[in-house]
Amino acid sequence: MSQSELSHSELEFTSPFEAVTRNPLTLIGLRMRWFSGKIRAKPNWWKKVYDYEIVTRWRKEIIEHDAAMVERFWGGDEYWKTGHGEKQWPRDKITNVQLNYLFDELRYDASRYDDETGIFATAIHKVHESRSLIPADVKISLVQGVSSLEDVPDEEKDWHPGSKKQVLDLVHPSMYCLCIGRSHVYRRDRGQGAPTVQLALEDYLSHRLDFQRFFYNSKKPFCISHDYQWLPTDFEVSESGEVEPLAPHDWYDHVTVPEPDYDDYPANRHAYHNAYAEWEWKYRWPSIPEPELFVPPTTTSADEENKIKISLHGRTLQVIVKLANIVLTPDNPKYAGGSWHVEGMANENIVATGLYYYACENITESRLDFRTAVGSHYRGIWLEYQQSDDQGYTAAFGLQCDRPLNQYLGYVVAEEDKCVAFPNVYQHHVDEFELADPTKPGYRKILCFFIVNPFFRILSTSDVPPQQEHWALDEVSKEAEKDRRKLMKERSRFVAVHDKAVFEVDFDMCEH
């Protein structure tokens, strides 16, 4: 049976909560990716890589910048020192072979640029972006719809806890989330119109077959919450790709609630689309080979037959939505940046993220950084090494004994009108930025779509009746605020445990 014929239950997305074999990238490879990313950030790079004069100038600039970086980390006596993890750059200068590889790969990816959508591959594997995906009329509709959430009295503005009134939550899944054992849930197996029930933890866990992979060495895996789950919205995707939200409309058939006064469904719907003497140990550094010539990947008919093809057309897709603004003022002019994280916990089973930066005003460059855990062998948290080969791993991969087994992959610049999509296997965080003109206010506004594993349905807004303040009693809003604080505390603890278990495992070069 070919892979394309596998049943959904036999298909598993890579989980960010498990350490898997992921070989580190060489510093030479990371350097080429870094320069490649700088070029891909330029307007019309997919055309300019074919211009001989422009490429010649870029090669010269790369050589100059690289020489400065090599001198910074490895100049003089530093050439023989391993440092303390800060030397994330090759010891030797970039070569023509490496430059040729870099630009051959750029031209290959430029040939795959999609003129219709503007989608192209970034220098970070599996991360894609577009600067023209969202039509102007859809953007206008979105901005108009969001304005009703922004234009509220100051006392009603939902500033994210701990953000020093810089992050304004317009729609956040931590508010009015599923409270396991307390939220009322519609039981589909009891038929339409049946009363809601409070789903017990045991019932919740018994229905989550996707959790089974996490129970092999723990009765209570760190990645599973027993208290909370973000609620996705169910979207029906037609065979032609048209998208319609299913919730909360399903509830209108059997629950009497007032109609919410928001009309921004159309905009959201379209926006969705790395025992010698002491002296010898000190000076024995590895020789790093040149990369092979870049060769575009070839695909055979057998490869195509065995390729797993997942179409989102003709299915119900579950999506968790977030709308947030980072707001800076002359009195509060600098955003300190966010923490490294993946999206959600196992409860949400998020496999991919789509971002739309629809408005940026008077801010310095804002970056979305990515990093990956690396390792092989047992559970992907160990690397084979020669005794005390600290210098070898430093020179080749930038990894050191007693330092975390992860590698920084690069960044995507957050710019107005840009869309970014990436799998939920990397950690990411927003880098610091500030006001460009410190005398004027500024902001960065974003629409986020978190895509739930399409092969496992989780409880959604189709199953849980509305819990917002204006749909029920004022006490519900107070309870939601309390639950959000508890959820955030739980997930802050989770991030620390997750880092220690997967993304910040120390490279332990113990004696063999």
UniProtKB/TrEMBL annotation:
Residues 13-61, 99-244, 264-474 form the DUF4246 domain. InterPro entries: DUF4246, DUF4246_C, DUF4246_N. Pfam families: DUF4246, DUF4246_N. This is Uncharacterized protein.
